[in-house]
Amino acid sequence: MRKTEKTMLRLTLFCLALLCLGTAGGQTKQPATSATAEKTPAYLTYKDTVLLTVSNGKKFIHHLVKPKQTLFSLAKYYGLSLDELYEHNPQFQTEPTLQVGKRVKIPVPNRAIKRYKGKDFSPRKYAPICYVVQDGDNLFNICKRYFDMPVDSIVKRNHLKNNNIKPGQLIHMGWISIDGIPPDWRPARPAAPANALAEKFEQQKNNHKEVLSQGVCFWQRDSKEEGAYYALHREAGIGTIMAITNPMSKRTVYVKVIGRIPAGYESNVEVVLAPAAARFLGARDPRFFVKLRFLK
Fold this sequence. Notes:
Elements: H1 3-29, E1 50-55, E2 58-64, H2 71-77, H3 82-88, E3 103-107, E4 126-132, H4 139-146, H5 151-157, E5 170-177, H6 195-204, E6 210-218, E7 230-232, E8 241-246, E9 251-259, E10 269-273, H7 275-280, E11 287-295
Parallel strand pairs: 1-4, 6-10, 7-9
Antiparallel strand pairs: 1-2, 2-3, 4-5, 6-11, 7-10, 8-9, 8-11
């Protein structure tokens, strides 16, 4: 082989090597495709059936928990604050993780329930809502009182032979969007303070021991202080987050522990709370009973 041919061969092999390296490198740097990327679990799909009940005139759906869902993510999906979710599901306040298969009670505004399909209805964008018949229910009250719909429409939709229903029966009343519920669809209520503290508390639960206690909460009722959410406690670490629940109002507030309870307070005083946080809990008296959770 002549010298010129050898030189050309070396150049060709060198270029092929660079091309192979470039291709291999490109493969490792390519973003994951929809087939390989880890999918975020859908909160609702058109294949789900959403159960609905009515309590004290308010409508509630009962969300079936799926893998990787948390109370915080569910609250965000349904346009709620975390304390609102705990207000209707106090049993989850002591659970470190949300178990798959559990049902979470979610208040639902009327406008989130689509009663009729309409011409632009897309079946894959909505999950059906079924009312769970309770003792004492009749079809007329369900249709007229709860949903403001004609009885005949519901009879036809559910292929009922007559108006007779029984407890536990599921009545298809409408649909809910699989995109969740926007927060501005809900009636105005006092803003949940320190949402960042609530999120941080939930994120740290798996890595820390959760301590539960209860007792008297004291606050300065005549104080004009606003906007601060803190607590004094005898045991919780300074700088840690504490969840305080008022069982009467069923509200929970998240506060940061900034110091110890000074000498002079009675031994049954479990926590001293900032006035703004106490007002959010619905406190009226300077002393009221609370339940506490903090992490160690």
